[in-house]
Amino acid sequence: MKIRSGTIDSTAFMVALAALLLVAWLAYRPGIDGAFLLDDFPNLSVLGTNGPVAHWDAFWRYVTSGSADPTGRPLALMSFLIDASDWPAPASPFKYTNILLHLLNGVLLCWAMLKIGKRRGLRENQAATMALIGSGIWLLQPLFVSTTLYVIQREAMLPATFTFISIICWCSARNAFDVGKRTQAITGMMAAAWFCTLVAALAKPNGMLLPLLLAAAEATVLRDSDAAAKPDQRARRVSTTILLGLPIALLAVYLVQAWPVAVRIASTDRPWSVGQRLLSEPRVLASYLRMLWIPQMNSTGVFYDQIQASSDLLHPWTTLPSIIFISCLVVFGWLARQRFPWLAFAILFYFAGQLLESSFFPLELAFEHRNYLPAAFMFVPVGFWFTTPRAQSLPWRAAAVALLCLLAGMTWMYASVWGNLRLQARLWGRINPDSPQAQVFAAEVEAASEGLPKAIKTLRASAMRMPNQPEVALTLVDLQCRSGSVDPQSWQLAIHSLYLASTGWNNIANWLITSIPNATGERCQGLTISALQQALDAAESNPALTRSHGHDDAFERASAALHLANGQPQQAAAQFDALLADSPSESTAFEQAQALNAAGHPELALEVLNRFAALPNHADQGINMARLHAWVLRKQGFWRNRLYALHQSLELAVKVKTGKASDGRPLDIQSGSLHPVSPYQGISDPSTP
């Protein structure tokens, strides 16, 4: 790259940046042919839950339907409409958009580094070199293939987009302060610190960390060494304190309020406590840093459920060394703010970015995508080093190019795996022998591509090796049902796993319900309703499962479904009533009535709807997306319309079945007055969903 002394050749810079983007595109191109995975299905299927998103009513129902956290992540949901408006849909458009978003983020990161470099007093050619190398290493980092090509992780990419935009705006606002444009500067800082934070948080909650990330920059690379020589410095400092201090204070309040909730959820729904998670996360962070700085030829992909939590400081033995290592890094980052600002910025930005997902919140212990934003400035010290006099020789410049080419080659290899589902499943199954999810994923793909016998044999070995993992044993039962029968050994492995399981009560309940069709008729010999009842009894006798928050409703729902399948509609209806009284909602009443009607009991289904209509209105508590979604549905009359239509059809079904109206009056077919007034009457167009 030809650069004039002290200034930047803009053409050469743009050519270099374009070449970098082209290389990144070519490296990721093999992954476009890949398939949806795991969390993609439950999160993207909402695109077609109630038909295509083809009009404004459907749009508002869709963007407010998120339930991953209180924010609902509406911006991320909205972005998926770029690729599809219904479900099922092909995966390639989603992956294509993710890659383009990653390239955009690379450009924004390069721009942000360029801005910061200029504010640090670097010459334009130095700032350009630092920005190209620092952003290039991040852009071609193999670890981020599992973020970019995992469609649902667009939720992790969008906060990075708005964080980089925020840093660019913040630096521009700082420049405005330097030339005395106070109003313009404060407006720009407000947009950077408040508006970008709001938008980033609507993509994923870790966007709330944006003010803290700006504070990390302010404490290091944006720290003025000649503040006395610049005008309006007092106003800038006051503005910075207010604009960053207020959202950081709100973040602190949120963390304090979230602590007791996290402790409760971890104690009931996780196999570890919050304290054990806090002991474990330094090990996880140390492994992240190793993967970032020493990329591996093979990645564990999206599977980290095999990681064991630290039980104390010495078990496993890496716990205490990791805590010491991470603590020393953080302390060094703070103490080195003035002497080594670029290194301090990389350290403080990284750990500030990990504050939510790698702290006390009871999430899974590890995931690669959690590094996407925190590691954005991880390699800026490397780029800065290449601006020093000792790195100006041709061999060092060649080394920088070689490093980027090496990373691009590794990324291409990773992306090639992501573009081949069979290779992906086989490789991840081999790399993660102790991951139940990886073994199930590998067996499912193997069953579809190489036949059931081989997949069943492989998964049976995994079930015997992991006797406390119902996910493996129950999937083994599913695969055997596809072949026509379940053998006694596999069924005993399933029952045994339910006695030993420590988590997964909701998945178990859902499996029991979805297995009912296999247990009726002759679709799967060896699996009966009584066998499923035995499985439910085993789960309910497991204290580790029954201590979990919410297990009662899940198992009650499964029990009701089993009673209904076993020809015991009255018992099912009684359990449905209990569930509805405990958690009244239109969707629950609708599903229960549909289930009873499908089983041939419209009179019981009608009773469910009538009882629900008599219940007091149930309002969602707190300020969250679920409450807004419920308001949207009420405003549109969505459930009222559906419940009215269902009530009408049930009235007719009862009349046909009994020869009487639901209130016991004999039918007069010729009179045209065949039913009492529906409690859901009074809407303008009951046929419109």
From TrEMBL:
Residues 661-689 are annotated as: Disordered. InterPro entries: O-mannosyl-transferase_TMTC, TPR-like_helical_dom_sf. It comes from the Bacteria. Keywords: Membrane, Repeat, TPR repeat, Transmembrane, Transmembrane helix. The chain crosses the membrane at residues 12-28, 96-114, 126-144, 156-173, 242-263, 316-335, 342-363, 369-387, 394-415. This is Tetratricopeptide repeat protein. It comes from Dyella psychrodurans.
